[in-house]
Write a structure and sequence with these properties.
About 50% of the residues lie in helices and about 20% in strands. It is α+β, with helices and mostly antiparallel strands. β2 and β3 form a beta hairpin.
């Protein structure tokens, strides 16, 4: 009667020890709402094999030797401005009339959360750069977003003169749309898949992931060109002001000629003196006497 209880106690103790050992040797990773992750089985005596994708906001437990790779998820930005915290320096392009322009802006995108696409990105690109780490992520973005972006800006800028891009809002809008189209094409070409997509894409609600969104500031020519353009504009404004003054003088001369024709030269002089207040006028009743005393008398 005592033996079964001994066996049962032994089995229970063994199970408890096993569960404790598993808890002590297992690991867990919490995937934040703005992250995506992949789990790979890689035990001490087994080859590395893909296990699953981990959805944002979940915690996943995995065994010793297994690997979790966590990537930025949701809306992300890639800034090119030369600022200290920018991912890339200002982009430089040459216009159709051979003037070098500086371009700054922002690419807004998301890493494709589709599990098969995410796995393909990780195995083809992410591992090579260790892009699950901050330094590797930034280096990867410079190559797979920054380089296609520079190429797109360069190709599109060649289609416009620098004056069109710097002074014509319509031309600037057309150029920005063209750069956006080329950037999306070149990013997909560089990566070999739809890895970087629209930041507004919602998995399961939309069929097409869409393209990254691009915002460009006005292309800027060299400082000396901007100064020359400003000086030229000031000269134009001065010319317009002088033309307006000439028109005013001409109108005034025509009015004087008309008065001289009516009043005669002496009459015009008298009229102008009266108008300017150079002659004192006093009302005299009809039939009244006027005595004029010359000055000095």
């Amino acid at each position: 009667m005592k033996r079964p209880r001994t066996v049962a106690a032994t089995v229970t103790a063994t199970a408890a020890l096993t569960a404790t050992a598993l808890l002590l040797t297992s690991c867990s990773t919490s995937v934040n709402p703005d992250q995506v992750a992949l789990e790979y089985n890689a035990g001490a005596f087994s080859s590395t094999e893909f296990d699953q994708c981990v959805d944002p906001g979940n915690r996943e437990y995995y065994g010793p030797g297994d690997r979790m790779f966590v990537y930025p998820g949701g809306q992300r930005t890639f800034t090119f401005s030369g600022a200290e915290n920018a991912e890339m320096a200002t982009s430089t392009a040459v216009s159709s009339d051979d003037l070098e322009l500086q371009v700054t802006g922002l690419v807004t995108f998301a890493l494709n959360p589709d599990c098969e696409t995410l796995r393909l990105f990780h195995e083809q690109i992410g591992l090579k750069y260790e892009a699950h780490e901050d330094a590797g992520w930034n280096e990867m973005l410079r190559d797979y977003i920054g380089q296609p972006l520079n190429r797109a800006i360069d190709d599109a800028t060649k289609e416009y003169t620098w004056r069109e891009l710097y002074t014509d809002p319509d031309a600037k809008s057309e150029w920005e749309r063209r750069v956006g189209e080329l950037t999306a094409d070149y990013i997909a070409e560089q990566g070999g898949g739809a890895f970087f997509i629209s930041p507004t894409f919602v998995l399961g609600e939309e069929e097409e992931p869409g393209d990254p969104q691009l915002t460009l500031q006005q292309p800027t020519p060299p400082e000396e060109v901007r100064d020359a353009l400003t000086a030229a504009q000031e000269a134009v404004e001065q010319t317009r002001a002088q033309e307006s003054e000439n028109e005013r003088i001409q109108t005034e001369l025509e009015a004087i000629e008309a008065l001289v024709d009516v009043l005669g030269p002496e009459g015009y002089i008298l009229y102008q003196a009266m108008k300017n207040g150079d002659i004192d006028l006093f009302p005299v009743p009809a039939g009244g006497n006027v005595n004029i005393t010359p000055p000095g008398n």
